[in-house]
Amino acid sequence: MAAAAAAAVGGPQPPQAEVPAPGLALDKAATAAHLKAALSRPDNRAGAEELQALLERVLSAERPLAAAADGEEAAAAGGGGGPGAAEEEALEWCKCLLAGGGGYDEFCAAVRAYDPAALCGLVWTANFVAYRCRTCGISPCMSLCAECFHQGDHTGHDFNMFRSQAGGACDCGDSNVMRESGFCKRHQIKSSSNIPCVPKDLLMMSEFVLPRFIFCLIQYLREGYNEPAADVPSEKDLNKVLQLLEPQISFLEDLTKMGGAMRSVLTQVLTNQQNYKDLTSGLGENACARKSHEKYLIALKSSGLTYPEDKLVYGIQEPSAGASTLAVQGFASAAGTLGQVDSSDEEDQDGSQGLGKRKRVKLSSNTKDQSIMDVLKHKSFLEELLFWTIKYEFPQKMVTFLLNMLPDQEYKVAFTKTFVQHYAFIMKTLKKSHESDTMSNRIVHISVQLFSNEELARQVTEECQLLDIMVTVLLYMMESCLIKSELQDEENSLHVVVNCGEALLKNNTYWPLVSDFINILSHQSVAKRFLEDHGLLVTWMNFVSFFQGMNLNKRELNEHVEFESQTYYAAFAAELEACAQPMWGLLSHCKVRETQEYTRNVVRYCLEALQDWFDAINFVDEPAPNQVTFHLPLHRYYAMFLSKAVKCQELDLDSVLPDQEMLMKLMIHPLQIQASLAEIHSNMWVRNGLQIKGQAMTYVQSHFCNSMIDPDIYLLQVCASRLDPDYFISSVFERFKVVDLLTMASQHQNTVLDAEHERSMLEGALTFLVILLSLRLHLGMSDDEILRAEMVAQLCMNDRTHSSLLDLIPENPNPKSGIIPGSYSFESVLSAVADFKAPVFEPGGSMQQGMYTPKAEVWDHEFDPVMVILRTVYRRDVQSAMDRYTAFLKQSGKFPGNPWPPYKKRTPLHPSYKGLMRLLHCKTLHIVLFTLLYKILMDHQNLSEHVLCMVLYLIELGLENSAEEESDEEASACGPERCHDSWFPGSNLVSNMRHFINYVRVRVPETAPEVKRDSLASTSSDSLGSLQNSGTAQVFSLVAERRKKFQEIINRNSSEANQVVRPKTSSKWSAPGSAPQLTTAILEIKESILSLLIKLHHKLSGKQNSYYPPWLDDIEILIQPEIPKYSHGDGITAVERILLKAALQSRMNKRIIEEICRKVTPPVPPKKITAAEKKTLDKEERRQKARERQQKLLAEFASRQKSFMETAMDVDSPESDIPMEITTAEPQVSEAVYDCVICGQSGPSSEDRPTGLVVLLQASSVLGQCRDNVEPKKLPISEEEQIYPWDTCAAVHDVRLSLLQRYFKDSSCLLAVSIGWEGGVYVQTCGHTLHIDCHKSYMESLRNDQVLQGFSVDKGEFTCPLCRQFANSVLPCYPGSNVENNLWQRPSNKSIQDLIKEVEELQGRPGAFPSETNLSKEMESVMKDIKNTTQKKYRDYSKTPGSPDNDFLFMYSVARTNLELELIHRGGNLCSGGASTAGKRSCLNQLFHVLALHMRLYSIDSEYNPWRKLTQLLEEISSQLGNEEQQPEVPILYHDVTSLLLIQILMMPQPLRKDHFTCIVKVLFTLLYTQGLVALSVKCNEEDRSAWKHTGALKKNTCDAEKSYEVLLSFVISELSKGKLYHEEGTQECATIIPVAWSPESMEKYLQDFCLPFLRITSLLQHHLFGEDLPSCQEEEEFSVLSSCLGLLPTFYQTEHPFISASCLDWPVPAFDIISQWCFEINSFTERHAEQGKALLIQESKWKLPHLLQLPENYNTIFQYYHRKTCSVCTKVPKDPAVCLVCGTFVCLKGLCCKQQSYCECVLHSQNCGAGTGIFLLINASVIIIIRGHRFCLWGSVYLDAHGEEDRDLRRGKPLYICKERYKVLEQQWISHTFDHINKRWGPHYNGL
After folding, report:
1. Which of left, alpha, beta for 1278 (phi over 0: left; psi -120 to 50: alpha)?
2. C-alpha of 1045 from chain center
3. Where are the alpha helices (DSSP H) in 1595-1639?
4. Which residues pair with 1004 in a beta bridge?
C-alpha cells in the first residue's frame, strides 16, 4: 500500500534520519503510554513539547513526497527504503499515540461506547441501492439505506427502491428531512442523558495528535499539486498523489466511523482557527513549511483567486478571471470598480468557432464588486481541506470523509458555510474539468446533504448571502458562452444568448449549480428572501434573458442543410432546468393572497426585461419571416405568474397587465411558434432536417409542455382577451399565411405559400383558434379537473400502463406542488376514469402488461379531441384516439358510421378572461367562417373535412358563448340601413348568422371563371349601379384591416406615434395587385350562414331537402335541448345540432330556418353543381363499397391467419384441429403423399427425390430435472438453504450406470440402460414437408441473403418457408405408406413361441446398408446432425472411446428421450388419451426409420442378445461362471426394460409387423414384472418375507400359479434366499428400509406403479408406429386400459372386478425355470457385492413432472439476498448477478472474472445444466433471459408490480410480486421446448453472457 505520511513544522532541528531511532521504533506503545502520562499532569508543557518533537520526527514530510513528486529530488534525498515504508510507520505511530499505549482496537471500541447515535448518516457512493419513502419524507431528496428502511415501518407507504446516481447519505434520525414516524428502531430519538460523559483522558491524545496529522495531510496536498500545463490534462499526476494518500484519508474516515465522541474532537480540530494559523502561516524559520506556504499561494493565484492580504502585491490590475461585475458586498471589497470586463476566461481557446467574436457583456451596475468570484481566505483546516478537495476535483475518499462528519451538528454548520464560501471556485473548477460528469455527481452528493435542510439553508442564506452567491455564480458561468442573437434584426441586435453548441450546455455542466438553486428555492423562507430582494430579481431576469431566443432556427428555402445540428436538446434541457424549474419553485410559494406583493415584483421585473429585449432586438410590429425560436422563458415567467396571481392570489388581472402596445408585442413570438408548428407539420421545414421535427415534438412532450406550450397558449389567451378581436383574428390568419386563401373566388394567388401547403396551414390556423378558445387549463379549471382532463386525453389515445400514465401526465415539476406522482388524487382520479385490465397472455406468448382503459362513460361524456390534439407528440395518436372513439360508438350501438370529433362542454371561464369570447363575436371571424362555408359548399380546392369540422366547431363555440339573448324588437328594428361595411350588421354571431349577403366583390386572376360571368351580369337588366346600392360587400383584406387597427391602437397609446410606427410594406406582404394581374369581379351570393348550413346538410346527406326542423314535430326540443341523440355523430349531426342551438338562441333564427326549409332551394349554380355533386356522390359510394369489400377480405384473411398461427404456435390447446400435410387419416392410402412447401408439388417420397420433414433438433436436459417429489424445490434465499442435485433423475441414472460399469462388462452395461436424461436430443417438427433438393437451394438463397436474421445459416438453421417456425434440419420420410398397410396389422394366429423364433431370426439378419441413394445419403447426414446436436460428454459413456456400443446406446436413447418427453407433454400419463397436438405434429415415425436403419448396421452378437436370455433356458450356466478373470455381463434383472424394448424394436427390419411388436412387449413384460417382485422382496423386512414365502408356496400347484403374484413372489424370495442378498442386514441397513405393513392391496398398487412407466412408453410407441388412437381413461384404471390396448390382457378379463396385474403375464417358457435362471445371475453377483446388488435392484420408477424452482412471493426477498452475494469463483460482488431457475446456481452475467476458454459463466452454465438451454433471472433487472445454444433472448419478467407491470432494470423500484400465470407459461415453454418458436427477438450472444 503506497502511502504517504504526515508532515510537521516548527522545531529548529533539521529532519533526522528517515526512520526514528531504533529504540523508539521498537517500543511505540511504551513511549505512547509515557507521553500520555506526562500530558495528564496538570503542568503538561514539557510533555507537550516532547510530543511535538516526536511528531515532527515521525511525520516528516520531506522524503516520501519527494519520491512521489519527481525523481531528481528523490535522488537528492538519497531515497531510503521504498516509498511506502515510512508512511506506514507514521500511521502506526499515530494509531499508537491515539490509543495512549493501549491496543488500537480496544481504543476504538471504547470510543464507540460513547456514541450518541441519533442519526444514521451512512454515506454511500454511486450505484448503491437505497430507498426513498414519499410518505415519510419532508424533503423530496430524502433517502434511507436498506437497513434503516427495512427496520422502519413503511407498510402501505409510497416508497421505492433506487440505484443512487451520484451517491448520498442516509437521513434516518434527521427530523429536518423526514418525519419521525419513519425512523428505524435504532434511530428513534434516544435522549442524550443515558449516554455517559466522555472521560477526559480517553481522547486527550487525539486532541494533540490530530491537528498535526491533518496539517501534514494538507502539506502533502500542497506539495503534490502542480498546475496542469495548458495542453496536458494532469489527471494522471493528481491520481498518483491521491493513491499515495489513500491510507491517510482512510485512517481519517475510520476515525469518523468511531461515532459522535471522536467526531466532535475532529470538528474542534478542523474548525479551530488558532491551530491553523500557528501551523500554516509559513512565517517560521522551517524551510519546508515556508516552501509549502508558497506552493499554496501559487495554487490560489493560478486559480484566479487572490489572498486578501496580498491585495497590494497582486493587485487587481491583472485581468481578473471572469466577466462578472456582479458580486456581493461584505467580502473584502475590491480596490477600484471594474467597468466592462473582457471575458478572458481560461478556456476561451474555442471562442471563435465560427460564431463571430464573443460579445462583451456589460451586466449590471458597477457598484457590486468582484469578490464573490475571486477572493478566498482560509481560516481553518476545514476550509483549506475543502479547497484542495475541489482542486483535486473531488476525490471520492475525501468526499466520503467530509460527508461522514455531517452528523456532528457544529461541523455541519461550519462545513456548509465553507462550502458556500468556495461556491464560485467550485464552479470554475467544474468548468475546466475534463471529467465534469463525475465531478458533478460528487458536488451534488455533498450539496444535496447541505441544502435539503431548510433550517440550515435559511441560516446560510442570512449569514453568507447564499442567494447572491448562487445567482452571481450562475450568471458568471453562463457568461462564458454568450453569442450575439440573430433574431429579428441580425445587424443591429444588442441581445446576447447562450450558445447551445458549447460544452457547458451540451454536457449539462451547469446542472449541479442549478440543481442546488432549485433545491434551496424549495424552502419557503429562502424563496421569500429571493422574491423580496429587488436586486436579486433584476439579476435573475438578466440570467433568464440569456436563454430568451436561443437556438434560433432559420427555414432553409433552397438546399437541404448539410449538417443537422443536434443542439436543440441542450436548449430544451437548459430552459427546463435553468429557467422553468426555478420558476415552478418560486410559484409554489405564491399560493395565497398574502403573497401578492411577490407576484407584483416578479411581473414588474419580467416586463422590464421583456421591454429591454424588444429594444435590444429592434422589434416593432412584424416578426422576421422564416425564423423561429422555441425558447421564450421571459414570456413564460410572465404568463405563469399572471396565471398564479388570478388563480390563487385574487389579484386583479388588469393591474398587472401592460398597455395595448406591449400586449401586441407580447403575442407576436408565441403566435409565431404556433404558426411554425403548423408549418413544420406541413413539411415546409423539411430542408432543415429531422431535428426541427424533434423540436416541435419536444415542445409539446409531456415533460416540457407545461413549461412551454401551456404558458404560451395562456399568454395568447390573455392577449386575445384584452386586444381588439378583429386585430387578433386577422393576425392569426396572417401569421399562418392563409390570408389569400380566404376569398370567395374559386381561384386565388397566394404570395407566401405553396398550394400544396395551403390546406394543412388552414387546418392549422383553425385548429389553433379552436384550442385557443376552448382550452381552460389556466382559465378556471381546478387542479383536480386539470388532472382528470390530462388523464382522459392520454387514455383516449391508447390504453396505458400505470407508470406510463405517471410519466405522460405533466406533473407540476416542483416536487412540493401537491400533485406528486402516485399521490392520493392521482389514484382516485384514475379509478374514476379508467378500468384496469389485468395482464393476459396470448397464445403467441407475447406478454401483456396490466393496462388502464377508459370507462364507457368517459368516452360518452369526457372525450375531448381538443385536449388530445394539444397533447399529442405524434399526429398518429390523434387518429388512434378517433379510431378508439369510433369503435366505442359502434360497440355501444350509439353511432354506426364514421363519427366526427364530439363537441365537449367547457368549464366556465374565470371572470378575468371573459374578453376571450369576443373573438367569437367579431366580424372578421364571421366573414372567414362565411367564406369557408361557401367555399366548401362550392367544392373549391384545398378544403378538407377537417376544415369544415373546425368551422362548425367555432360556430358552435360562438353559439354556446353568445353574449346575451337579443330581444326580438331590436332584431326587427335593425334593417338594412345598419350594414355600414356591407358584410354583417353587428358583431353578435347569433344575429349575424341570419344576415343575407347578396353580392361580394372579389379580386381574382384574369383567368378565373368568375371574370367571364361578371361581364354577363353587367349586361343583365339591373345595371352595376343598382348593384352598388343594394349593399355589395367590399373586397375584404385581412392584412389591411390589421394594419388599420394596429395604427389606431398605437395612436391611442402614444402621442409621438409617428416615430414609433413604421408600417413595413416588405415585399412579402405586398399589397394586392403586385401579384399576377388581378381584376375585380362581383359574385352573386344571396346566402346567409344559416342557409349555407342547411345546404351543407343536403350536401353531406346526399339528399335534397334532407333537413327538416325537428321542433316542428316536437316542440319539447326547444325546452330541454340537451339531447343525447345529438352528442355523437358525423357532420350531419353537427349541422343539426348547430341549427337547433341557433333556433334556441333567437326566435328570428328559428323563423328564418323554417323559411329556408320551405323554399327548398335548388342548389346554388344549378347545373354545374349537381353534376359535380353527383360525381362526388357516386365516387363516395363506390369508395365506400370498395372499402367495405376490402374490410371483408382483410377480416377473412386475418381470421385465416389467426387459426393458422394457433395451430403452428400453440403447445397445449387440443381443440385447434387442422389437417396436417402428413395424411394420418386414411389408412387405405397405399403410399403417403407429401406437399413440398417450397415448390408446391405433391407426391410420394422416393429413393432418388426424398421428401423431408422440417425439424428442429435440440439437446435437452429437461428429463434429467425430474425429481421424485411433487413439490418443486424453492429458490434459496438465505445462506442456509441450498439445492443439491442428488435426487434428480439425471443424477440417479448417472450413478446407476457408473455402478454397473464398475462390476460388469462395458459393452453389456451400455445395453442395460438409456442415456439422454441430460443432453438428450429432442426432435420436433412443425409438420411441413419439403423436397430435400428444394431445401438445399432454399438454404443457398438464405446464405446469400445478407439480411440480419436471428439465426445462423452456417449452422444449418432456417425458418420453415411456410410457417416461419425455427428449424435446423430435415428428417427424410421413408418411402412407402406412413400408416403401415393393413396386411401388417392383421393379427396372425401363430403361437407366441413361433413369433419369438421369427423375431430372433429377423434380428439375426445383418442389416446391409441400402445402396447409395439420395435417401440413404440424407439419412446419414441427418444422423450426423442428431449426433452433433449434443455435446460429446453426453454421447460417450463407454470406457473405450469411440466404441460402436456408444453409438448404439446413443441411437436408441434418442428414441427414448423423445418418447419420454412426449409423455411429459401429455402431463406424465396417458389418461387424456386421444392424439394431442404434440402427437399430430410428431415425427417419431420418421425418426424411428432413420434410427432403425443405422442400428441395424451394428448387429449384436447373437450370443449376447438379451432376447435369448429372455426367451430360452440356457443350459451351460456353470461354464459361464468359469471365466473369473473376465467381467461378467449385466444380469438381465438389472437391465432397464424400456431400453430393451427399444433395442428389440429398432433391431427389427422396418416396417415392423404388429404381432411381432406385441410378442416383444409380452416377453418384456414378464421380465418387468419379475423385477417388480424382486424389488418388492428387497423392500420387505424379514418377517414379511417369510410370511409371503409361506403363503405363496401353498398355492404353487394351482392351475394358474404362473399368473398369481403371491406364488411368483414367494418363488422369487426362495430363489434369492440362496444367495447373500437378504443376509447382510447390518444395523446400518435397517435405517434405509421403512417398515411398512404390506397388505395385498398395497403390493398390487406397488407392482402396478412399477410397471406403468413401461406401459405408457410402449403405448405411445404403438400409437406412433401403427397409428392407433390412445384410449382415454380415469387415472385409477390407466394400467388395465393400457395393458389391454397393448394386447397383454386377454379381452375376457375385463369383466373381472378386482383387477390383478399378474393376469397380464404370458410366459414364453415355464415361469419358475426362467425366474430361477435370472435369480441365479443375481446370486452369483451378490456373493461378492451384496450392498451394490441390492442398490441396483431397487429402481426408482416414479418420476414426477419436471418443474422450475419455486420463487418467493415478493421480489425483494430475492433481490436483497442475491444483489450483495459474492460470486463463488472470484469472491467479488458481480456487476450483473443472475441465478439459474432450473437448479438455483448463482452466476455472473458477462462476468469476465469467471470466463473459461472464452465462454462467460452463463453460457457455460447453460451448457452444463441444460445442454445449451439456460433460464436465468437477472437479479438487478428482474428480467428473465433465455440462452438457447448460440442465441439468447430477453423473455420478460415474472414479477409484476401492483398495477400488473414489469419493472425492467428496477427503474421504478416499486415492490414486485410473482405472477404465477407468467411463471407457468415460462415453465410450459421450457418443458415443451418451444422457446425458439414463441419468442421472436433472438440475437447471438458470442459466448459473452
Report:
1. beta
2. 54
3. 1605-1617, 1627-1632
4. 1079
Three-state DSSP class for residue 1329: strand
Cell representation of residue 196: 455517559
b/e code 1615-1648 from CB counts within 10 Å (16+ = b) = bbbebbbbeeeeeeeeeeeeeeebeeeebbebbb
What is the grid cell recorded at 1556? 411381432
pLDDT at position 1495 is: 82
- Residue 1532 in grid coordinates: 438381465
Radius of gyration of the chain (CA): 46
- Give the DSSP letter of residue 1215: T
Sequential DSSP letters for 661-675: HHHHHHHHHHHHHHH
Instruction: Confirm if 555 and 626 have CB atoms less than 8 A apart.
Output: yes
- Give pLDDT tens digits for 1191-1236: 777 776 666 666 555 554 444 443 344 444 443 444 444 577 888 9
What is the CB neighbour count within 10 angstroms for residue 1435?
20
- Which residues are 161's β-sheet partners? 131
All cell numbers assigned to 1456: 427414448
Backbone angles phi, psi at 203, to 5 degrees: -105, 10
Measured CA to CA, the distance from residue 896 to residue 199 in angstroms comes to 89
* Run of H or E including 1259: strand 1251-1260
Supply 906's cell numbers: 367547457
Per this entry, what is the length of the chain?
1889
Instruction: Report pLDDT digits (tens) over 135-163.
Output: 898 888 889 999 899 989 898 888 889 98
Q: Cell for 760?
A: 394543412
SS3 436: helix
Give pLDDT, residue 1369. Answer: 93
- Name which of 1356, 1344, 1381 is nearest 1252 in CA terms: 1356
Helix ranges, 491-595 (H): 503-506, 511-521, 524-532, 534-545, 568-574, 581-587
Give bridge partners of residue 1321 from the DSSP assignment: 1259
Rounded Cα–Cα distance for residues 1123 and 575 (Å): 47
* Selected residue with higher pLDDT from 877 and 314: 877
- The whole-angstrom separation of Cα 999 and Cα 1018 is 13
Q: Where are the alpha helices (DSSP H) in 1061-1130?
A: 1089-1101, 1116-1119
Grid coordinates representing 943 are 378544403
Are 149 and 184 a contacting pair, CB within 8 Å? yes
- Please list the residues that pair with 800 across neighbouring strands: 852
Stretch 697-723: mean pLDDT, rounded? 94
Find, among 1606, 1604, 1611, 1609, the residue nearest to 1704 by Cα: 1604
Angle at the Cα of 1503 (from 1500 to 1507), degrees rounded to 5?
70
Phi then psi for residue 248, to 5 deg, are -60, -50
DSSP secondary structure string, 253-279? Answer: HHHHTT-HHHHHHHHHHHH-HHHHHHH
Q: 3-class SS at 576? A: helix
Other C-beta atoms closer than 10 Å to the C-beta of 361 total 19
| pLDDT for residue 1779 | 94
Tell how strand 123-124 and strand 1813-1818 pair up: unpaired
- Alpha-carbon gap, residue 1053 to 724, rounded angstroms: 14
User: Residue 1469 gets which letter from DSSP?
Assistant: S
Please list, residue by residue across 1491-1501, b when 16 or more beta carbons sit within 10 angstroms of its beta carbon and e when fewer do. Answer: bbbbbbeeebe
3-state secondary structure 1795-1851: CECCECHHHHHHHHHHCCEEEEEECCCCEEEEEECCEEEEEECCEECCCCCCCHHHC
Instruction: Write down the pLDDT at residue 1121.
Output: 57
Q: What is the mean pLDDT of residues 777-804?
A: 92
Mean pLDDT of 235-239: 71
812 or 541, greater pLDDT: 541
Are 975 and 965 contacting, i.e. CB atoms less than 8 angstroms apart?
no
Name the pTM for this structure: 0.82
Strand order in the sheet with 1320-1331: 1320-1331, 1251-1260, 1369-1372
Q: Are 1233 and 1244 in contact (CB under 8 A)?
A: yes
Q: What is the mean pLDDT of residues 209-217?
A: 82
